[in-house]
Amino acid sequence: MSPFSNFRSHSLITTAVVSELASHTEAALEESCKRVVGALYEALTAGDVETVHHLLAPDLEWWFHGPPSHQHLMRLLTGSSSPSSSSSDDDPFQFNPVSLVAFGSTVLVEGCEERRSVAWVHAWVVTDGIITQVREYFNTSVTVTRLSNTHAPSTSTAAAAEEEEAPSSVPCTCVWQSKVCESMGKSVPGLLLALQ
After folding, report:
1. What are the residues whose beta carbons fall under 8 Å from the beta carbon of 154, sequence distance 6 or more?
2. What is the C-alpha separation between 48 and 46, in angstroms, rounded?
3. Quick check: 119 and 180 in contact, CB under 8 A?
4. Could you tell me if 120 and 188 are in contact, meaning their C-beta atoms sit under 8 angstroms apart?
5. Shortest CA distance to 57 belongs to which of 147, 126, 159, 144?
6. From CA 78, how far away is CA 114, in angstroms rounded?
């Protein structure tokens, strides 16, 4: 029996335990991020401005894709409209999530406003329990892919120089696709969101 066989066996067990712990840690992160984003939608619906302010970073990074007339979330978060507005001129937009899924610290929320025939997707990034980024898509089919770098780092400088010269492709896997636009029977533009 080789003196390294116990070491090899121990190494395989350690690798399996570390992998399992990482999986549990990732799942816990995703659940935590989903709770934060879910609390935001509850606070928006209830008109709880204080909770909204606690959940959002003061320097929230915002990216919007859609017609300017559909920037309902921005108007709601900046206070230029409210969910409890009762004026007949101001028909408030209702954000009613249909699905909520997380990939690491990114939480995707999809919903629709049937009265307006509008479908939306929000991609939130949660950092240390605070929402730091949002990407907002209106009447857009969103496909999310995860990029995976399968290239092992090279120790040879000649091989590294060769890799720099040759274009390489990064494999990506589709992990989520919006569905509400399809169910509304609308033809909408498609967009690809890549996660690392």
Report:
1. 160, 163
2. 5
3. yes
4. no
5. 126
6. 24
Q: How far apart are CA 61 and CA 193, in angstroms?
A: 16
pLDDT one-digit tens code per residue, 11-58: 556 666 556 656 678 899 999 999 999 999 999 999 898 999 999 999
* The pair of three-digit structure tokens given for residue 125, joined into one six-digit string: 């990034």
- Strand ranges across the sheet with 118-127: 56-65, 130-138, 118-127, 106-113, 97-103
pLDDT at 133: 97
CA-CA distance, 195 to 106, in Å (whole number)? 8
Please return the burial class of 39, using the count of CB atoms within 10 Å of its CB with bins 0-12, 13-18 and 19+.
middle
Residue 142 · residue 191 · CB < 8 Å: yes
Structure tokens at 91: 């028909």
| 143 and 137 Cβ atoms separated by less than 8 Å | no
Q: In angstroms, rounded to a whole number, what is the distance separating the alpha carbons of residues 63 and 29?
A: 23
This prediction has a pTM of: 0.74
| Tens-place pLDDT, residues 77-101 | 877 765 554 333 467 788 889 999 9
Q: Which two tokens stand for residue 88?
A: 């007949």
